[in-house]
Design goal:
2 copies of one chain form a homodimer. With 107 residues, chain A is mainly alpha-helical. Chain A has 4 helices and 3 strands, in the order αβααββα. In chain A, helix 1 crosses helix 2. The interface between A and B is medium-sized, with 26 and 26 residues. Chain A binds a DNA duplex (30 and 30 nucleotides) through helix 2 and helix 3.
DNA sequence: CCATCATATATCCGTGACGGATATAGTCAA
DNA sequence: TTGACTATATCCGTCACGGATATATGATGG
């Protein structure tokens, strides 16, 4: 039951998960590590947030189970919809960050 | 009972409120308008989120009641701690946005 | 040889942010 | 005089979050 439209803005947790999955299938634990790396350790995602968010994001059609097989690991990949959502959210975040830096800089 | 340390990352709602208050005292309704403007209408903050967040942010010592007086309006201003938190969060967001754009760009 | 740590997935559930609905009231224009 | 906009405020249901916990395997080392 995938939804038609992903709700923007994405939550920070969902954004980081999508970003971690861009261009590469990853399994859960790997996603956690990647999120830490991408955020310079400022975002620590526990298993509750990870698997809870994965459920929601799969339900929303942004992520799907991957093809890579490996007992013990479950791989996830971005869907086309997920990529679209990731790009849109990245642009939105960039704009907000730019606005903020302009404001702070002109003080 | 202001807290010593603001928890980073800030929630999107809190971040937008602090940003709206940077360099200028504003009353509640004005903050709502400014958040919409800063986010190009992508973030719509209702009164529930606004006043609830204001309570938390005052409690945390990031915002205080302003000096401007005007019956019917209540003004809010950033504290020094709030400015520090805003700058830190802006830097964090900028870094995350940059990492994301790099990833998406190299596809 | 056994303890401990890292890997890996998963569930449970309390807390709390969020946000729509709602209420109140003043102003101003059609 | 009705409706729209300004302005503040509270209530409360929902749901994302995230720590605690459980389980199991592989590696590391004392």
């Amino acid at each position: 039951m995938s939804k038609s439209e992903p709700p923007l803005p994405l939550t920070p947790a969902v954004f980081h998960i999508l970003l971690a999955l861009f261009g590469k299938e990853r399994h859960g634990y790997d996603i956690m590590q990647q999120v830490r790396a991408d955020s310079r350790d400022t975002v620590k995602m526990g298993p509750g947030t990870l698997y809870g968010s994965l459920d929601r994001v799969i339900e929303a059609g942004l992520v799907a189970r991957g093809d890579t097989q490996d007992s013990r690991r479950i791989y996830y990949r971005l869907t086309a919809l997920g990529q679209t959502a990731l790009r849109a959210e990245t642009e939105r975040l960039s704009r907000v960050a730019l606005v903020a830096r302009r404001q702070l800089g002109s003080a």
